[in-house]
From TrEMBL:
Species of origin: Kolteria novifilia
Pathway assigned in UniProt: Carbohydrate metabolism; tricarboxylic acid cycle; isocitrate from oxaloacetate: step 1/2
Active site: H259, D310
Record keyword Acyltransferase present: yes
GO annotation, biological process: carbohydrate metabolic process; propionate metabolic process, methylcitrate cycle; tricarboxylic acid cycle
InterPro entries to which the protein is assigned, alphabetical: 2-MeCitrate/Citrate_synth_II, Citrate_synth-like_lrg_a-sub, Citrate_synth-like_sm_a-sub, Citrate_synthase, Citrate_synthase_AS, Citrate_synthase_bac-typ, Citrate_synthase_sf
PROSITE patterns in the cross-refs: CITRATE_SYNTHASE
GO molecular function terms listed in the Swiss-Prot or TrEMBL record: 2-methylcitrate synthase activity; citrate synthase activity
Gene3D superfamilies cross-referenced by the UniProt entry: Citrate Synthase, domain 1, Cytochrome P450-Terp, domain 2
Name of the protein: Citrate synthase
Reactions the enzyme catalyzes: propanoyl-CoA + oxaloacetate + H2O = (2S,3S)-2-methylcitrate + CoA + H(+); oxaloacetate + acetyl-CoA + H2O = citrate + CoA + H(+)
Taxonomy of the source species: Bacteria, Pseudomonadati, Planctomycetota, Planctomycetia, Kolteriales
Superkingdom of this protein's organism: Bacteria
SUPFAM superfamilies xref list: Citrate synthase (SSF48256)
């Protein structure tokens, strides 16, 4: 591999320091502030993880109760946001809705104290699901939903607002686990975008708006939606195998596979695969799970490329009845915790992030007056 290819996309370049997560030490493994992702996913809730990331320690029972109550009290939207959500077309992508909603919240509740990022994070975490589902229901059937669902957790609130009724315990737990898995991941592209914006001394909402826009693309958060679209294309595992081989021959990218840091295993994929397996109860979801397993087998056999978190998350979300265009917004709800913690960390020891570039353009040349110029190719 040429030196140019090896560092293209900043691959392998260490761009700063963080206490928030360790990713892929020796090609595998993930910890949030030293706690293994396996332990957090099995035992914690998103609120515990959010508190850990943003405030620095796992909350004691009283702290957790207070934190949950605070988030619950912050769910209502200002009327200006509701009116704007009504104006955004129902055909917009939900990621664009969240990007706009976050930006508008920054206009209405502008951050003036850089030490208030944790409070800004609480408000945004609490309101992002309200924004998405207000917009969704308004454009689906004209209803203006309220925000008083009696759900103490973010996981329950998301499912309740989407479906309009209390979720099952199994669904609530699956959503909580998924949010934990998606919460934080070191210097991924969207987090780095948030840190770059923060490094200019910009405000909290600008940093998160940058991050949402960066997460939207298919090479990053958008991959969970693209993975679902792929899985749904195939009637059965044999068709999936045949078509996949063709895609690989044509050098097409298979969404939900590969990772910049993990080479042997994305530990979150192993966890979410079991969540997806448990949720795949209906014949239709069992079929989609079998198709997914075959795609995984073929990718490993042919290319030695692993599933990343996005692949089986797609199956899990589909089984939970979540519309595919809402998959990446769920990633936003979760990653807002990690982004916020990174904004706080960046501010603690800030220096403008501004890398250099190798100039590969023209040699110096004289300016040509406009009446002496010709159009290229003419
Ligand atoms: C939560 C997340 O954001 S995780 C990432 C989600 N994104 C996806 O799932 C999109 C699909 N995956 C990809 O495009 C890539 O694997 C990325 C963007 C995640 C990582 O990109 P990079 O680190 O630049 O890829 P990397 O250098 O490891 O690629 C090595 C080789 O494997 C190939 N490869 C990597 N991923 C895939 C894939 N999903 N499908 C097919 N081939 C792949 C590359 O094309 C490259 O082949 P080449 O050497 O012949 O050019
Ligand atoms: O770390 C990355 O490159 C992508 C990411 O956000 C994740 O895997 O959660």
């Amino acid at each position: 591999m040429s030196a140019e290819k090896s560092t293209a996309g900043l691959a392998g370049v260490v761009a700063g320091r963080t206490e928030l997560s360790s990713v892929g030490q020796e090609g595998r493994g993930l910890t949030y502030r030293g706690y293994a992702i396996e332990d957090l996913a099995a035992n914690a809730s998103l609120e515990e993880v959010a508190y850990l990331l943003i405030h620095g320690h796992l909350p004691a029972a009283r702290e957790l109760d207070g934190y949950r109550a605070k988030l619950k009290s912050l769910r209502s939207l200002p009327s200006e946001i509701c009116s704007t959500l009504e104006l955004i077309p129902g055909t917009a992508h939900p990621m664009d809705v969240l990007r706009t909603g976050c930006s508008l919240l920054g206009c209405l509740e502008t951050e003036t104290d850089p030490n208030s990022a944790a409070d800004q994070a609480d408000r945004l975490l609490a309101t992002l699901p309200s924004m998405l589902f207000y917009w969704y229901h308004y454009h689906r059937d004209g209803s203006r939903i309220g925000f008083e669902a009696p759900e103490p957790t973010l996981a329950g609130y998301i499912l309740h607002l989407l479906h309009g009724s209390a979720p099952s315990e199994m669904a609530r737990r699956a959503m909580d686990m998924s949010l934990i898995l998606y919460a934080e991941h070191e210097f991924n592209a969207s987090t780095f975008a948030a840190r770059i914006t923060t490094s200019t001394l910009s405000d909290y909402h600008s940093a998160i708006t940058s991050a949402i826009g960066t997460l939207r693309g298919n090479l990053h958060g958008g991959a969970n939606e693209a993975a679902m679209e792929l899985i749904e294309r195939f009637a059965d595992p044999d068709e999936a195998e045949r078509e996949l081989l063709g895609m690989l021959t044509r050098k097409e990218k298979i969404m939900g596979f590969g990772h910049r840091v993990y080479r042997e295993e994305d530990p979150r994929s192993t966890i979410v695969k079991e969540v997806a397996r448990a949720l795949a109860v209906s014949p239709e979801n069992k079929r989609l799970f079998a198709v997914s397993e075959r795609i995984e087998q073929v990718m490993w056999r042919e290319k030695r490329i692993i599933t990343n978190l996005d692949f089986y998350s797609a199956n899990a979300y589909h089984s939970l009845g979540i519309p595919t265009p809402m998959f990446t917004p769920l990633f936003v709800f979760a990653r807002t915790t990690g982004w916020s913690a990174h904004i706080i960390e960046q501010r603690k020891d800030n220096r403008l992030i501004r890398p250099g570039a190798d100039y590969v353009g023209s040699d110096p040349r004289p300016y040509v007056p406009i009446d002496e110029r010709t159009e290229p190719g003419r």
